[in-house]
Design goal:
Elements: E1 2-7, H1 12-16, H2 35-45, E2 49-54, E3 57-68, E4 71-78, E5 81-86, H3 95-108, E6 112-115, E7 126-132, H4 134-141, E8 154-155, E9 159-162, E10 166-171, E11 174-183, E12 186-189, H5 207-216, H6 221-228, H7 251-262, H8 271-279, H9 283-286, E13 290-291, H10 295-311, E14 319-323, E15 332-333, E16 337-341, H11 342-345, H12 349-363, H13 369-385, H14 395-399
Parallel strand pairs: 10-12, 14-16
Antiparallel strand pairs: 1-6, 1-7, 2-3, 2-7, 3-4, 4-5, 8-9, 9-12, 10-11, 13-14, 15-16
Helix pairs in contact: 2-3, 3-4, 6-7, 7-8, 10-12, 12-13
């Protein structure tokens, strides 16, 4: 027999009305305002008993057999009075889920959970919920599998990595999903996640992407290496890192991935591609993608530049570098150099000229690319038409 208690007196309307949380905390467990009522239904349906003390006032929950629209149901009662729900609520819930609701409610109100005394009674100024059911007793013994009791070993941003393997995924310290394979670490999601009314992840298919982004963006080398080298019997082996955003990849991830890639030790999908995509934009790592342009490639570069400067003589270009094997399909420009993927070069001078012009426009970050191009066109037309261009609006038709 387990007792859940806290200081203060519960509002009995909240305890018996759907859509009103029985607690004031902001935990995700209280989002729907149904948890306590569903826990009551689960306990009664499985032959357990539940008694609530509001101070010294005693409220016993029970069930009465009734027929409604030709169907036999058990109406939940409180001190003999019928409430507006049956024992069918939480129909697919297991004992640990009912325990989780009562445990979370007590903790969110600053309370505690313990084994009940044989003569447990109400106390002035306290709320007590006493449950006599073996399912709750067992869940109490395994509470560490329902609520995280460890401190995080690593902070990955919107995910915490706690020590130890686990099949359980937690959300803000609460068990919300069970995997078919264990994870290298015990993961606690701390960002925003949508839950079902059963307090499980509404979109578990998004979990691999959430973990991929957290791991790729973190500075925890130990976690990164453990995940990238995970074998097939671990859940992390199924994470596809192509779901991660290359713009948010940390330098630590790139350094670890670079070393593991050289040793051919990366086992998870998409990690090599993510490394290539992200590293090719970072000055520290881009060196391994440089190649000496061939004579033909040099000619293509010069021809593309000539094509642009023949129309816009004032255009200037920084030093051009050729990158190979990056998977990128666009030219990137900084104040000191232009990075040209070899795949773009192979499309010929006309395609490269278009890419160079786009890169030049994007490089002018103090203005939008469209503004920069418009200014360039106006300057060029004004030069071609001479001093009278400012007094003659017909040249706009020629540009159009």
């Amino acid at each position: 027999m387990i007792v859940f208690e806290n200081d203060g007196l519960i509002d009995m309307r909240a305890a018996t009305t759907f859509g009103v949380s029985a607690k004031v905390g902001d935990s995700p467990i209280g989002f729907f305002g149904t948890g306590f009522k569903m826990a009551v239904g689960v306990i009664l349906r499985n032959g357990g008993s539940i008694t609530l003390y509001r101070g010294c006032a005693k409220y016993e929950f029970g069930k009465q057999l009734r027929r409604i629209r030709g169907k036999t149901v058990h109406i939940v009662t409180m001190n003999g009075d019928e409430l507006g729900f049956t024992t069918d609520v939480g129909k697919n819930w297991k004992a640990w889920q009912a325990y989780r609701e009562l445990h979370a409610n007590a903790l969110d109100e600053g309370g505690s959970i313990r084994v009940a005394d044989a003569k447990e009674r109400g106390e002035k100024g306290k709320t007590k919920i006493i449950v006599d059911w073996s399912g709750i007793d067992e869940a109490f013994a395994d509470a560490d599998k329902i609520f995280l009791s460890t401190k995080p070993a690593f902070d990955l941003g919107e995910v915490e990595a706690h020590p130890g393997e686990s099949r359980i995924i937690y959300y803000r310290g609460l068990r919300v999903f069970e995997l078919t394979k264990p994870t290298r670490f015990t993961y606690n999601l701390t960002g925003y996640e949508m839950l079902t009314e059963d307090r499980t992840l509404r979109f578990p298919s998004l979990l691999p992407g959430t973990l991929a982004n957290a791991i790729a963006g973190c500075d925890c080398a130990e976690v990164i290496e453990a995940v990238l080298t995970a074998k097939g019997d671990f859940y992390e082996q199924s994470i596809d890192f192509s779901d991660a955003s290359s713009a948010k990849v940390s330098d630590t991830f790139l350094r670890v991935a670079q070393r593991l890639k050289a040793d051919n030790a990366i086992r998870v999908r998409g990690a090599k591609g993510l490394f290539t995509e992200a590293a090719s934009t970072r000055e520290e790592f881009v060196g391994e993608f440089y190649v000496e342009p061939t004579i033909v490639e040099r000619e293509i570069i010069e021809e593309a530049k000539a094509l642009l400067t023949s129309r816009c003589p004032n255009l200037t270009f920084p030093y051009a570098r050729v990158l190979k094997g990056t998977g990128r399909d666009s030219v990137w420009m900084t104040a000191s150099h232009i990075d040209i993927p070899s795949d773009v070069l192979h499309q010929g001078p006309n395609a490269l000229a278009r890419q160079l012009l786009k890169a030049l426009a994007s490089h002018h970050s103090d203005r939008t690319a469209s503004d920069w191009l418009v200014d360039l066109i106006i300057d060029r037309v004004a030069t071609l038409r001479g001093p009278k261009a400012n007094d003659d609006a017909d040249w706009l038709d020629e540009v159009a």
